[in-house]
């Protein structure tokens, strides 16, 4: 499953001509393209899908969504180690 996940900008920089951010998704840190939201600043939140920040989001909504995703195990599903997930699925099938 592919989710649009809220994240908080921790760094912004241009890399090879592309505006990029380092974003925190409830403890998981990923690089994200900011070309669709070039004025997004450190400390702000945005919805991210497949590595692109798509829409600005207020902090309260972002935190509620991240808490719900964590509770449902969706953050691990979206950002977890695929090898670990495959190993767990294989062990569950035995």
UniProtKB/TrEMBL annotation:
Q: Which InterPro entries match?
A: Hydgase_assmbl_chp_CS (IPR019812), Hydrogenase_HupF/HypC (IPR001109)
Q: Could you list the residue ranges that cross the membrane?
A: none
Family assignment from sequence similarity: Belongs to the HupF/HypC family.
Q: What is this protein called?
A: HypC/HybG/HupF family hydrogenase formation chaperone
The organism named in the record is: Kitasatospora cinereorecta
């Amino acid at each position: 499953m592919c989710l649009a996940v809220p994240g908080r900008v921790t760094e912004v920089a241009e890399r090879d001509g592309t505006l990029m951010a380092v974003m925190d998704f409830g403890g998981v840190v990923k690089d994200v393209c900011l070309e669709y939201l070039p004025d997004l600043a450190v400390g702000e939140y945005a919805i991210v899908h497949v590595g692109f920040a798509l829409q600005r989001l207020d902090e309260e909504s972002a935190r509620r969504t991240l808490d719900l995703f964590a509770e449902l195990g969706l953050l691990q599903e979206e950002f977890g180690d695929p090898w670990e997930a495959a190993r767990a699925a294989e062990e569950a099938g035995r």
